[in-house]
TrEMBL record:
Organism: Coffea canephora (Robusta coffee)
InterPro entries linked to this entry: Thioredoxin-like_sf (IPR036249), Thioredoxin_domain (IPR013766), TRL33 (IPR044193)
One Pfam family in the UniProt entry: Thioredoxin
CDD domains in alphabetical order: TRX_family
Lineage: Eukaryota, Viridiplantae, Streptophyta, Embryophyta, Tracheophyta
Region described as Disordered: 1-22
Domain of life: Eukaryota
Name of the protein: Thioredoxin domain-containing protein
Gene3D superfamilies documented for this protein: Glutaredoxin
Length: 124
């Protein structure tokens, strides 16, 4: 069960929030998101980050803004510290995984708004 302190550590989606952008609230929630990605077969991108990661904090506002530019993609933010079991394979933050037809088709490490935009365009 979450308490208010846990909510404050997660990046604030704020005014950049869009219907296609969600933040995983824990391992069980991220498992549900994975299931939805697999069964809906809709294109999606997952941004794996951490609250203590400076580079993650730099790219997160762009990730939110880009969710508005690519409404056909589902955007997911997963904090590796809030989802430790489902993100134990993540070795670098930020890491972006791109999904199409229920399968992971691409991966991007690190920040770079233009690189991220190009990958989103490619997979949208």
């Amino acid at each position: 069960m979450e308490n208010e302190g846990d909510k404050e550590e997660r990046p604030n989606l704020g005014s950049h929030s869009h219907g296609n952008l969600v933040a995983a609230s824990g391992d069980e929630n991220l498992k549900e998101i994975f299931h939805h990605i697999r069964t809906s077969r809709a294109p999606a991108v997952i941004n794996y980050g951490a609250s203590w990661c400076h580079v993650c904090s730099q790219i997160f506002p762009a990730f939110c803004q880009l969710s508005n530019k690519f409404p056909k993609l589902s955007f997911v933010y997963a904090d590796i510290d809030e989802c430790p079991d489902t993100t134990k394979h993540i070795r670098y933050t930020p890491t972006f995984h791109f999904y199409r037809d229920g399968e992971r088709v691409d991966e991007m490490f690190g920040a770079g708004e233009e690189r991220l935009h190009d990958r989103l365009w490619l997979h949208s």
